[in-house]
Input
Amino acid sequence: MLDIHLPLMLFVLALFLFLLVVLNKMLVQPLVKFMDDRDNSIAKDLEAAKGLSGNSDELNAKADENISNAKNEAAVIRQKAVDDEKALSASKVETRQNELEKEYGDFVEKLTKEKESLKNALLSQMPLFKESLKAKFSKL
Output
């Protein structure tokens, strides 16, 4: 039936061990070395990413600080512009009020002069009115 051949078994065992050693040298050790190198590379990249992440947080904080400073400066500039415009408009209003007061004073003075001249004209015409009234009353 089944015969066991000891030299053939020893040859297969030697061949198996030889192939095991050769495959270990040619395939397994380079593969293990590649995986270790890859793990080391990933660890270095993670460290670098953490460093860059910390750096970006620092840059974000600086950017936020710059934005805050710019907003404050803009608010100061805007307030200064508003105050300047208020002062300018107040001076314009004051100037216009002074002009109007002067014009009103001139108008009142002119009106007073016209009133006086009208009064004088009426007073100079008074004897004629009296005469015409007397004439009309006498006709009645």
